[in-house]
Amino acid sequence: xxxxxxxxxxxxxxxxxxxxxxxxxxxxxxxxxxxxxxxxxxxxxxxxxxxxxxxxxxxxxxxxxxxxxxxxxxxxxxxxxxxxxxxxxxxxxxxxxxxxxxxxxxxxxxxxxxxxxxxxxxxxxxxxxxxxxxxxxxxxxxxxxxxxxxxxxxxxxxxxxxxxxxxxxxxxxxxxxxxxxxxxxxxxxxxxxxxxxxxxxxxxxxxxxxxxxxxxxxxxxxxxxxxxxxxxxxxxxxxxxxxxxxxxxxxxxxxxxxxxxxxxxxxxxxxxxxxxxxxxxxxxxxxxxxxxxxxxxxxxxxxxxxxxxxxxxxxxxxxxxxxxxx
Amino acid sequence: xxxxxxxxxxxxxxxxxxxxxxxxxxxxxxxxxxxxxxxxxxxxxxxxxxxxxxxxxxxxxxxxxxxxxxxxxxxxxxxxxxxxxxxxxxxxxxxxxxxxxxxxxxxxxxxxxxxxxxxxxxxxxxxxxxxxxxxxxxxxxxxxxxxxxxxxxxxxxxxxxxxxxxxxxxxxxxxxxxxxxxxxxxxxxxxxxxxxxxxxxxxxxxxxxxxxxxxxxxxxxxxxxxxxxxxxxxxxxxxxxxxxxxxxxxxxxxxxxxxxxxxxxxxxxxxxxxxxxxxxxxxxxxxxxxxxxxxxxxxxxxxxxxxxxxxxxxxxxxxxxxxxxxxxxxxxxxxx
Lengths: 326, 336
Ligand SMILES: Cc1ncc(C[n+]2csc(CCOP(=O)(O)OP(=O)(O)O)c2C)c(N)n1
Fold this sequence. Notes:
A: Rossmann fold, seven-stranded mixed β-sheet, 12 helices, 14 strands, B: 8 strands, 42% helix, binds thiamine diphosphate, thiamine pyrophosphate (chain A), Transketo_C/PFOR_II (chain A), THDP-binding (chain A)
């Protein structure tokens, strides 16, 4: 077994795929010296033809990746900050994502969009702290949010091999994670297949990205009084609805913890789908950022808008009580 | 399969233009647009079209100077480019009419017509958005060792889009084999070019070190000659060129304009603009008998195209989300 960090897992996934498939190339700002470390060592191994530093022109290089993909390459773009997705949104959503349908299936666009350190990072304030995975799920772009090093490796490999555009969010809160893994066991992980990190019988907690680790800690604290199942969908689009339904068959109670904004966020979608189609013995609850949140600079303010373990504990107790009386 | 574009072709473009072939393309586009407008009026086209009438010399001249395996991207006013590059007029007409037999199986319509088999990477309805896509394809083609070039068309309106200027910068830095063809028809919808473009269009490219040329866009042979020079530059690794083709749009911005009738140009101005006709300019260069034969052939072809389109089935609504994902991922229904 080896200790593998989340960051190293991303780096390894990109390197392995570049090794396996010469069509894979990397676009991004400062990727040659690897300021984020995700692309460390790649220029040395694969040359400057396959690891390209880009000007500060997110719209253009996102569109260039689309064209390159149409001509046979499989670009992976690294964005330095999640907010750049808003600049590139046109080229991802309106162009890359729509091409397959609009052309009647003549072409698909195999580009991977990787956002290392998405979400709140200390002191980065309003324009650097977004975590916009729900937006991509809303428009139907395949979107993964891995929580662990092995999942980061497996989902990124899958994204690169996928023939459609895929966005991979690596939450800032998960980037420092390390795990003891058998490197030989690292493998692609399909999109749309969730993972039960901890089985339980009383309540299902759906946690996304780094919040999986918070959920596991809370579940541990509560063990003995409440038996919590922690379900990590791993990709928010496609979503593992079957896996969730199976979990709710066992528990009948649902809490979602999701680091995106409340209104029209994936948390709302999970609650709605469960309410429409799955077994619930108590009204479900969700913990999210507030509606339309912009994370303020001051530490206390930033933290005040993010989902917390305290809120999760409270919500779990709430659904247990409602289930008991209802 | 992702990344499949037109097969490589051995045939090089002719070093000098074939006047009859250029005339035929202009005539084909003109008649195609006229027949398409008839279908719009008859209610057979859902939504309408942006007619290319008046601008045909640009599509004919540029595509005439390309090889079959070169690539193009097009615009909301894209029928001419798509036809000139070699798409089947019948399947193009069927696409506009939203039929299952269309180039895009009825999923794209007028503004998204694509035919990867003949090197058309899609018409694009977002002004300026195809410029980086073309540049990416050009870059990837060169990396793959081919000497293909890519032509990307856009209007004068697009030169105020940031993404186009970002793309100029990168195409120049990389010496990408891409040719930027700006069709300056004097208007972006109703806004005059001089009211929207500070400085000059050629100057914008020149600022990035991209050679730029103004071309009389009513003359197919002038466009052909300028394109041939740009193609030679691109194939020999010297990088991008911008061609600003001056032209005139005969018809409304879009067929809805006949209903809304916005006033932005006088009837006199339109009459003057229409008095210069690429059909006449190119037609005068060929034998009258040849011209008459081409006209007749094109009419037969388009009768057949319209018949094919109208007799073709409409796509099954149950398949409305087919082709969204390459691997067949299915989207959940909106209602249960
Ligand atoms: C980015 C963007 N903004 C606005 C529109 C709406 N629109 C469609 S065509 C058009 C005018 C484009 O003018 P120009 O580029 O000169 O091309 P032309 O219509 O003259 O061929 C506009 C504003 C759009 N499609 N995309």
